[in-house]
Amino acid sequence: MTGKIEELLARVEQFNAKTAAEVEEFRIRILGKKGELTALMEEFKSVAPELKRELGQRLNALKNAAQQRIADLREQVQNAASAAAAHIEDKSRPGTAEELGSRHPISLVKNEIIEIFSRLGYTVAEGPEIEDDHHVFSALNFAPEHPARDMQDTFFIERNPDILLRTHTSSIQVRTMERQKPPLRVICPGRVFRNEAISYRAHCIFHQVEGLYIDEGVSFADMKQSLLYFAKEMFGENTVIRLRPSYFPFTEPSAEVDVSCSLCGGKGCNVCKGTGWLEIMGCGMVDPNVLEASGIDPKRYSGFAFGMGVERIAMLKYGVRDLRLYFENDVRFLHQFDSAL
Ligand code: PHE
Known about the structure:
This protein is 42% helix and 20% strand. With 341 residues, the chain is an alpha+beta fold. The protein is elongated and about 120 Å long.
């Protein structure tokens, strides 16, 4: 019997309740007419006289503990209920704050680039991420043996005929030239894919914004002026640009565009590696072969194209040193870009 008393005492001490109904149910189960303690009392009547003293004391202690526990729980449950009621009634209580999301820094910068060029009359054009060889390479004057057509550089979905993930959004420019007659002025944002090992400065998925302007008499000087306008709007009024000769299959002549380092003002720091300049995009005059491939007369029309990586612009603008941060979606990183944009 000692064992039963001990066991019930342990359960009484551990019992917890959230509602008054639960406390009452417990009371009946232990102290009620058919309750467990009542049954023990009954059993007590028939124990040997020499055990009565000790067992009687234990039973009494159990009964007191049960009554005390029930009283405590009743009080506790009641307090909780009135606190909850007071909580509801207090209309001056501050509301719970809604956690607001924020735009991803890549979206912020992409939107800003689009906005700047839309002020120059560019409209947004979009296209598919899964493309064919024609729109990504052939129509853009890539030679058949160009390394970008290699599995090492491009993700192929099917071969012969080739279906692949676009490696640049120049494919959208081809689609625009095929569909529309000049004058053309489009800006082409989108995700692009390249078969690169992921590191702090390269990723196999990234974002580009490319642009294309075709009309009669469009010159290299027009391009320089448009890109200077962009650089000043993006990086600040005092920004200057320089163009370095470069090569792309689809433009001739071609150039890389550098902006003066906005962090050191061109004096040289560790972000611009002491040069005072930061490379931000490629550009050039659309190659006559490209115009012709899309049915535009190169004798009548000329144009320029440019393309930039959004991650790169965002890194320079915000001083982010590791490209991978843009893809990990760590809220501690993302919350630094909270913005109304
Ligand atoms: N398509 C080029 C790239 O992905 C960028 C570019 C666009 C260069 C237009 C020149 C003209 O790197």
